Amino acid sequence: MPKVAILGATGYTARELILLLLRHPHVEIVCVTSRQSDVDTIADSHPRLAGRLDLKLTRFDLDHLTNEGVDTVFSCLPHAASAQVIRPILEQGIRVIDFSADYRLGDVSTFEQWYGVAHPDAERVGSVPYGLPELFRDEIRGSTLVANPGCFPTSALLPLGPLLKQGLIAETNLIIDAKTGVSGGGRSPKPGFHYVECNESIRAYGVGTHRHTPEINQLLDRYAGANTNVVFTPHLAPMDRGILSTIYCAPQAEVSRQQIHECLLDFYRDEPFVRVVDTPPATKQVTQTNFCDIAVNESAGMIVLTSAIDNLIKGASGLAVQNFNLMSGFEETTALL
């Protein structure tokens, strides 16, 4: 039975990851780490885990991981901090699924431009599988390091990827209007995410500057083999969790809404976690699941795609478990259905 460790275990995505792994029949959680000094156990940080996981939160210690016989590390650390520790972990023969942005992008210069720090493990950038199984399954299977996708990119890449690859929509002027729940901002207190700021209000943020923009562009380019251009605008919505992305794209000449709908139906026919639905989905349809629901509509000659995911599950922790299953040779749906 593989033994796993979770680095940065006090955040929301780590909590969801632990809840999923606790129902995984082939996993033992043996180590949880945190840089916080005011909490003693994982249940102190996440009371839902009381009586279910009795582990002390420790500082990261590579010797401790090796002594515990850890097989796989889930790193929920921030960008740059994650790559710093991943490098020596991999050298010990331990596999890693990284939740940060450190290995998602294809080149160091783009990472450093958008994240404002020097990359701690630059030589690996561009060679790490992107952990979206529906599009990159063969690269993920058996890998030792996987870059878990961002939540917004997941909601955009799943509907757009197959259509661009089949040449059914134009590569440029792709407009992604996405709404996310407040948990997308993480657990650390921030003034703009306080209840009185978010409740009964919705606002755009990161307009033209959001770090998921180059991730969406680069992965669409890589998968579809085309030079794409995306206008991505996220919005903070007054809900705990979920992402709803509304995507506007121009069909190629003579391509109908029905053809696009059938393309997605055919592409995802055997995929367990993508559902092509007839009406625009709501975030509550996918809450606390690893599903992505996608609908196709038409307006004023434009194709309107809507996709809904749970940002903490299909947008983070559920996807990580899906990747772990692929890396380990387990049934891909284990602990997720």
Q: Give the SSE order as H and E letters.
A: EHEHEHEHEHHEHEHEHEEHEEEH
Rg, nearest Å: 20 Å
Shape: globular
Q: On the 0-100 scale, what is the average pLDDT?
A: 96
In order across it, which strands form the biggest sheet? 8-9-7-10-13-12-11
N-end to C-end Cα span = 20 Å
CATH class of the largest domain, named Alpha Beta
Judged by helices, strands and strand pairing, the structural class is alpha/beta
CATH superfamily of the largest domain: Dihydrodipicolinate Reductase, domain 2
CATH fold title of the largest domain: Dihydrodipicolinate Reductase, domain 2
Q: What CATH architecture label of the largest domain applies?
A: 2-Layer Sandwich
Low-confidence stretches: none
Overall tally of domains:
2
The biggest sheet amounts to: 7 strands, mixed
Question: How many beta-strand runs?
Answer: 13
Proportion of helical residues? 25-40%
Count of individual helical segments: 11
User: How much of the residues is beta strand, in percent?
Assistant: 15-25%
What does this entry look like structurally?
With 337 residues, the chain is α/β, with parallel strands linked by helices. The protein has 2 domains: 3-128, 3-Layer(aba) Sandwich (Rossmann fold); 151-311, 2-Layer Sandwich (Dihydrodipicolinate Reductase, domain 2), CATH 3.30.360.10. The chain is 32% helix and 20% strand. The protein is built from 11 helices and 13 strands. It has helices at 12-22, 42-45, 62-67, 81-91, 108-115, 133-140, 151-165, 195-198, 212-224, 257-267, 313-328, and strands at 3-7, 28-33, 57-58, 72-75, 95-98, 145-147, 174-180, 203-204, 230-236, 243-249, 274-276, 292-299, 302-309. Helix 1 (12-22) links the parallel strand 1 (3-7) and strand 2. Helix 1 crosses helix 11 and helix 7 (151-165) runs parallel beside helix 9. The model has no long low-confidence stretch (mean pLDDT 96).
